[in-house]
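User: tokens in, sequence out, please.
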């Protein structure tokens, strides 16, 4: 099945399951479970929640252990949090300041998640053991999903 079709089906499922749920952690946990099950190229799917001015802490996730804390000045997650721009790393080992939480990861995409007031609340992080696994299709659908997570969530 083509990537776009996979995302369209997963987003329909996510919308149906999350309807009426406004608790942030419950929403994030559900999104992780559905994306991890439905995206065969993703080896890790999770959220790093903003817990301070320039620090992220691991939140709900599916996959092997994640890093517990990530400062904004380190790694792909830190870059997404710091800049507010989705980061696609086709080769994580070539990414300046990459943090190797899992040595088998080859590529990564990280999407900022903002609340309704525009404040960064988390980043959505997907890793892959395949090189260059993420592209503009992933960016489009994951950014759409990040916007919807924030729109229906409250702390």
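Assistant: Sequence out:
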């Amino acid at each position: 099945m083509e990537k776009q079709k996979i995302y369209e089906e997963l987003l329909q499922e996510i919308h149906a399951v999350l309807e009426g749920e406004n608790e942030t952690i419950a929403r994030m946990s559900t999104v992780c479970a559905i994306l991890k099950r439905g995206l065969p190229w993703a080896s890790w799917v999770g959220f790093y929640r903003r817990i301070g001015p320039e620090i992220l802490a691991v939140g709900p996730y599916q996959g092997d252990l994640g890093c517990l804390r990530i400062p904004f000045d380190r790694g792909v997650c830190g870059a997404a949090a710091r800049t507010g721009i989705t980061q696609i790393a086709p080769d994580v080992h070539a990414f300046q300041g990459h943090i190797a939480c899992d040595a088998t990861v080859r590529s990564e995409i990280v999407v900022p998640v903002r609340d309704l007031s525009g404040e960064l609340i988390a980043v959505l992080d997907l890793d892959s053991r395949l090189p260059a696994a993420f592209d503009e299709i992933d960016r489009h659908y994951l950014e759409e999903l990040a916007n919807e997570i924030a729109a229906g969530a409250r702390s």
